[in-house]
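testing teh design pipeline on a random one, pls ignore if ur not involved
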């Protein structure tokens, strides 16, 4: 199936127009015409080969919103014309313990990710959502509730589920005190979701002047984490802290702010922590440090349904696809509130300019 998109061909070259072939649809596949695709930090990291495992050419994008074009003969949940989404995964083994629990992201045989991954059936490389069409196994296609803005819904497929999953796992709801570290793409979704779940929500930030935006997004309080007196004032307060910081940082200052049996959940950073954690801050008070990686398909559909009920979408800046490299540079400067989303209709103009 002929497709067109924007791809990186090396770690140093700008992304450019790329014509390629999608796989022939199988009996359980859904063919989706892409309307919008969110831009994630992971896209930048993989396009620039920061992890050292990018297979070029790479078509990034795993926050996909589109309409069903056609379905395979064994597909019953979707019909042509339906608004649907595709997140970070497009397949998994479906029989290991994590998959059976609905945690396909932790598939013991390895998840098939939406791009820069190997199709488990034919060995081809997967290409992502910076494109006009995508072919996805029906089990990994998500229904988008009526009424959700499709552009604002795109980042829910990554930023939304990445923050929803730990909130769900740690039973956040009315009466829970939640803190969020960092106000970026992940942090702003954590504020919105925790607030909608009924929690009392606090933002930890190192930058002053974020009270207005934090309040608009759902925070009840803002604590300047670089101020020892403000940190001391919230000692023993939080049941759950969602840490969205995407780089190495010291988590020790936050541990004393956890309540008895409280937990700090890492969701933004997956590397080694340079500053060792003081074990005493964990042992005393039965506190814990946990982690969470995106979320399963069932959780993602639950999150979309919840967002539909509460009218929650991401705060986005819509860009044409030819501005993607500029968007990457702005992401590195944290110059976006709070997610870029590509209007894939712009791909037609970009194609005409080639």
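output:
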């Amino acid at each position: 199936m002929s497709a067109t998109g924007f791809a990186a061909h090396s770690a140093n070259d700008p992304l450019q127009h790329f014509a390629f072939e999608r796989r022939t649809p199988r009996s359980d596949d859904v063919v989706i015409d892409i309307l919008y695709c969110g831009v994630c930090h992971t896209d930048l990291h993989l396009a620039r080969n920061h992890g050292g495992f990018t297979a070029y050419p790479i078509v990034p994008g795993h926050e996909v919103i589109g309409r069903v074009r056609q379905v395979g003969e064994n597909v019953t949940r979707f019909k042509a014309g339906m608004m649907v989404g595709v997140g970070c995964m497009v397949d998994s083994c479906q029989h290991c313990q994590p998959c059976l629990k609905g945690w396909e992201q932790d598939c013991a045989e390895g998840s098939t990710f939406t791009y820069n991954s190997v199709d488990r059936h034919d060995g081809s490389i997967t290409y992502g959502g910076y494109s006009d069409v995508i072919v996805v196994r029906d089990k990994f296609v998500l229904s988008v509730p009526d009424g959700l803005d499709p552009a604002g819904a795109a980042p829910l497929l990554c930023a939304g589920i990445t923050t929803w999953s730990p909130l769900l796992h740690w039973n956040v709801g009315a009466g829970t005190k939640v803190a969020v570290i960092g106000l970026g793409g992940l942090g702003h979704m954590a504020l919105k979701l925790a607030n909608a779940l009924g929690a009392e929500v606090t933002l930890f930030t190192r930058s002053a002047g974020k009270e207005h935006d934090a309040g608009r997004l759902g925070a009840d309080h803002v604590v300047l984490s670089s101020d020892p007196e403000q940190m001391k004032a919230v000692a023993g307060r939080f049941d759950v802290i969602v840490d969205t910081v995407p780089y190495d940082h010291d988590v020790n200052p936050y541990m004393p702010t956890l309540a008895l049996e409280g937990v700090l959940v890492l969701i933004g950073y997956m590397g080694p922590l340079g500053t060792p954690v003081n074990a005493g801050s964990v042992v005393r008070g039965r506190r814990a440090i946990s982690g969470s990686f995106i979320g399963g398909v069932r959780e993602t559909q639950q999150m979309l349904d919840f967002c539909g009920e509460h009218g929650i979408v991401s705060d986005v800046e819509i860009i044409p696809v030819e501005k993607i490299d500029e968007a990457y540079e702005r992401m590195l400067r944290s110059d976006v509130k709070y997610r870029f989303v590509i209007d894939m209709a712009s791909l037609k103009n970009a194609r005409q300019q080639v």
